[in-house]
Amino acid sequence: MNAIGMLTNLLFFPAGLFVLVTGLAYEWVDRKLVARFQNRLGPRWFQPLADMVKLLSKEEVIPEGLDVRLFVALPVVALAGALTAALYVPLVGLNPAHSFPGDLIVTLYLLSLLTMCIGLAGANTRDRFSLIGATRTLTQLFSYEAPFLLALLGPAIVVGSWQIREVTAYANQHWLILTQPVGFVIALIGLMGKLELPPFDAPEAETEIVAGALTEYSGRGLALFRLGKGVELVIGLTLVAAFFLGGVANPVAFFIKTLALLLIIAGLQSLFARLRIDQAVGLWWRYGALLALVQLLVLIILRFWGWNGGL
Amino acid sequence: MDRETTISQSLESARILLAPCTQQLLTPEPGRMDISLATADLLPAVAALHLNGWGRLVAVTGLDLGVNEGDLEVLYHFCAGAAIVTLRVRVPKADAAIPTICSLIPAASFYERELGEMFGITVVGTPNPDRLFLPDDWPAGVYPLRKDFVVPEIPG
Amino acid sequence: MQKNDQADKFIIPIGPQHPALKEPGHFEFTVDGEIVTGATIRLGYVHRGIEKATESRTWVQNLYLLERVCGICSHIHATAYCLGVERLAGLSVPPRAQAIRELVVELERIHSHMLWLGVAAHEAGFDTLFMYSWRDRETVMDILEGLTGNRVHYSANILGGVKIDVDAEQTKTILQGVDFLEKRTHHYLDVVTTDSAFVQRTAGIAVMSKAVAEHFGAVGPTARASGVTQDIRIDAPYLAYEDFPVEIVLDTAGDLKARFVVRVQELFQSYQVIRAILDKLPAGELAVTMPRRIKENETISRVEAPRGELFYYLKSNGTDKPERIKIRTPSICNFGTVPALAAGHQLADMPMILAGIDPCFSCNDRMVTIHRPADDSQTWTWEMLRQYGISYYREKER
Questions:
Q1: CB crowding B7-44: b at 16 or more within 10 Å, else e
Q2: How many domains, in total, are found in chain A?
Q3: pLDDT single digits (tens) B8-39
Q4: I need a labelling partner for C348 at 20 to 30 A (CA). Which of A160, B123, C226, C325 fits?
Q5: Which chain B residues are within 8 Å of C383, Cβ to Cβ?
Q6: How many domains does chain B have?
């Protein structure tokens, strides 16, 4: 891999510009769908972009009494983490730009980096809403992370590899949702928890704690965090589609499958009232983690008997 | 039993309950009974109604009887169904103080705070005498609902 | 309502500016982790000095001032005031006028309860219900606009009667609208009682027993959800409620869910009354003439606003202006229950507990604004504000 290629990968495709734009586009689709489900008109297609431009051009207010370096660095780290993760997933049905054994685990940790940064950002300020928001963000992180991880490990166990490229190559031939429906559901809902989408939006419940951990962020910092979330949405959808929905072998399949997943997510967002943080944690640990664990054990045992994981 | 009978029975039972404290009894209109009390009798009178389960405290009205009279009046309105009993207590402006009734009816706290800030009536023993409606930087000793308070013209 | 010394505790301030509150109020919740241990209230952020202002306006002017005490229940304020003034002046209002007043009162109740349903759902993070209930609320807003010409301050009342009439075409439109709303209300009742995610947030939360409700003097739907049999429309009928009665809606559970159920059930009562009124609207005059001055007297007027009992005390002094008007709105009675209900619940439940009493801050905060001498003025003219803005940014750029 030469230097120019690496730089292109980082700045334009698949990470960088491409995934940022896709993130904004997917954010628009999500907002539009939820709006239509709620009998509203919803935003126009360029609204997320316009929001971003506006935020980036606005004054960034740095509150008093916090670590300024941390305050400024956290959004950058969060976005960088999400963008780096984009290098390892099969965006638009192409092979991941980079790949090495074990990159699945690295990707999942990079995805969590964003949430960690948001939690830290909240804990860094002295704002009471932020502190409560940070506590909730981290509480939620610890509750959905394990089930989410276990759910995505299912396909990896079946394939016998921790490398995303190998898992997707196998998944392109098999619809793993048929053999691992529990994993699919948990992965999808885990993704909603990760992105703090309703009904798992207790960490940023506006009627209680304003904007949660990010209450004190404005301008550039807030824009970067939001971009990060958009990127994470795309990566998360790609992973779930690639692992469970028969792979994303070509761009058409990629867009159809990820958008179908987005439709489901938007529907779920409109259907439920917000879960309190204790209810969300209860849901994850009581059902999510347990079911994911059971499925994983079943897979391991079946594989031990020589089953290849397909139908 | 029709409504009129119920009302007159309610008022009659209130009259009996309040008889020991009553200074003056008026029936200004059908379904209402006004009873004037001495300040010292307020608590016993409220207790007589409240502890016997006669109706509930609906509102407390402050009245400035005018610059000339120099008195303030506090009206405690109790309602049972359609019957209304008003306990009236007069206090001089110079020494405007009444006992709290929060020990009996905690819901009166808001009304008593309002009396304090709007009329400058000291409610002795009220659990929280803080401002409720007026701003924190409102000048002390200015009581907007007194008649001598004139709303200033807004400049511009 | 006790004064709290909370120096070393973690306090979450809600308001005066906060997304949960559509109007300004200030609540301080002391929390231990996610559990609320105490609460205090500070009101007065939209204090406009209405009670004082009434004393310098004529009886007629006050009608329009008092209608602006509250934007949601404007008609009921005007009605309570009219009923009191008419009693002071010894007027007997024609039955047709009273029936039309009642019609508007009930339409207003529908709009208020549906607004509340949406707001409460939003507090629970259930925006879909919020959007749908507000969409359907437009039906009743359109009816009110068609009837009175206004969406918010209907100005249907005049002293001595009403200034609007209901013709056959309007009757048809109203009945159609009511039929549609009734169908939707059945759906909403279904949602608030069976949607498991939503019921999880309401059932068993903020339980207020009948004794507690009476202790704190709760009124209206908040009290009726705790089993307190209290409804001024039934206890002391006014307007035409003798001829077109409603039935009391009670629930004994006393939790948030009960408050939802009671308010939604009350909508059905309103639909039924509206149909009855339109069916048998008395014929006759719409208004009688009102004298300009009223001899010295005093009276009390009580009505059932959407949020509960509304109390007016009116005192006349022989001139064309009132001596004193005291307004006791339902929200102030219900506010007292919030600190009592809050303790022991999760912070996440607070917005819903607050919304559960259907608070109306405008209603409470009525009285006076003051400004100090010119050198330290609190009231700024538009020009002063503009100049300040210009100089602020000039200063900043330097």
A1: beebbeebeebbeebbeeeeeeeebbbbbbbebebbbe
A2: 1
A3: 888 888 888 888 888 888 888 888 899 998 88
A4: C226
A5: 156
A6: 1
